[in-house]
Amino acid sequence: MKPGSLTAAWVLLSLPALAHAAETPVAAPAPAVSAAGSLLQVFIGLVAVLLLIAATAWVAKRLGVTRGGTSSLLHVVSSASVGTRERVVVVEVGDSWLVVGVAPGSVNALMTLPKGEIPSAASPILNASFAARLQHLIQKTAVDRS
Asked: Which residue, among 136, 113, 116, has the nearest Cα to 124 in the 3D structure?
């Protein structure tokens, strides 16, 4: 027998097996995936995650969760905005108050005052502007030092 005839005989003998394999059902084709359905599913997931983040922030604010790094040594007594991004802050450190100017790129000590008392609500100084209160504290400090 020639090698070509052996291959032809082999193909002819395997034809019934190939025909039988073609008749058996193959796994059902996967359903077509809709692009709109996938996009909707991703959008709903995104909205759910954003709502979860917002709810967590609301609960944290409601419960009074504070940022880390709070110190018993430092305490902010008062703060006032003097510009769009600038503030004057009075910080209590031990037995003194520091008046500092805070800007986006720097923090500058403006003056040091002895520890005072926070004016009560009945005090007319409380209703005045921060500049007037600061001027009053400066004058009070100058009188105390004399």
From this structure: 136
The whole-model pTM stands at 0.37
Cα separation of 96 and 108, whole Å? 16
CA nearest to 99, candidates 109, 86, 87, 107: 109
Rounded to an integer, what distance in angstroms lies between the CA atom of residue 76 and that of residue 66?
Answer: 14
Alpha-carbon distance values, 92 to 26, 28, 74, 112 (Å): 80, 75, 6, 10
Q: Which domain holds residue 81?
A: 74-145
The pLDDT value recorded for residue 114 is 85
Taking residues 89-109, what's their average pLDDT?
Answer: 90
* Number of domains into which the chain is organized: 1
95 domain-assigned: yes
